[in-house]
Amino acid sequence: MVPALRVAQKERSRQIAVRLTPIEYGHIMQMIDAGLYRSSADFAREAIRDKIRTLEIVSVRDVSVQEAKRTVLAYLKKNPGSHFASEIADQLGMDYAVAFKVVNELLDSGKIKRSRAQ
Which numeric CATH code is attached to 65-109? Predict the structure, then answer.
């Protein structure tokens, strides 16, 4: 039964080869030497998974401006501090245009304040 298990595992994974510049390779080796990664394969797997996560397709909720205002205010109340409108849109699954419109309207009405970090 063990050989069948090995075959099944082999069928699930794929191997790719990649060429790196000496500088890129050196950076990876420094991170391995520092104990951040076990091997170059470990680094490559994590880098690929991180990139895939950043490129995942997300759905955008269709909400009215009034509902978006309530949602943004609730988000800001729950998550105090400075936030970019794009960050709020991403966290709430909201269209960027709607998020920017809502944030500007909330700023104009005085319900939220512009961050001093700008």
Answer: 1.10.10
